[in-house]
Amino acid sequence: MLHKHLNENLNYDGTPIEPAWALKEYGIKGSSIITWIGPMLIKKDKIIDYEDVDLEIKSDVMAHFIVEHFDCQPADLRMAYHRQRILVMILKDELSNWNIPCTRKGDDLYINSAKLSVSIATVTPSSMKVHLGINVKNQGTPHDVETSSLIDNNHDMGMKSVIKLMKDTSKRYINEIYSIEEDIAKTRIF
Prior knowledge:
It holds the Pfam family DUF366. The protein is α+β, with helices and mostly antiparallel strands. It has helices at 21-26, 77-97, 150-153, 159-186; strands at residues 2-5, 32-42, 57-69, 103-105, 108-111, 114-115, 117-123, 128-135.
């Protein structure tokens, strides 16, 4: 599994959750995590979660993770959600290293009652996909949702620190997936 951090200010509009996005846009073949910092504005026709259809999902500055796995055919939505939760739990652990204590409710992270993240898991005909976005700043978030951000909770955290957080989280996630594969390979079954 490959991790690539993009230095471009890419808007998350829902397109990166589409099949083989990393291959089409960046020539990355196979399972991957692509990260970048940029805005998010998802139009209604790109919203995947039925509970969010009438909501504004937006932010001026987010840290984005797009995960795609091709290792399970046909793609398994249950496994995609399990992997999404693993990624969110790893990020929660990494945030504690930055003195940003948060709580997890399902696939979302909160600081007190303020929402820090958005996330979705889905499947395509050939892969499992996860998007996880973390508010870097509070600007541009919906007015009807109480939100929090990384910089609001750690004033020493600049963009270089956010990139390090993303890289560390991605590395731990990849190691976790490899560790599971190694455990499967060494387990005697009857």
